[in-house]
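Q: Could you predict the 3D structure of Transposase?
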Amino acid sequence: MNEIERDRIDAREPGGGMNSSPSRYSRQSATDFTDRVGELEIENARLHRLVAELLIKNQQLRRAD
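A: Sure. Here are the predicted structure tokens for Transposase:
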């Protein structure tokens, strides 16, 4: 299993994730909303790091040819 597959598995949330209903969050309190925003910011930062790593690996592979 490579790093990308591990990240995909780590990102999955039981009973939620990207397939969950947006209305699920509309009934939450302001504190819950703030917590969710924080979670999304952390996930966004993780994805930015992953993209940067992939770009570096891509450049390295192109140079190796």
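Q: Anything worth pointing out?
A: The chain is about 75% helix and 0% strand.
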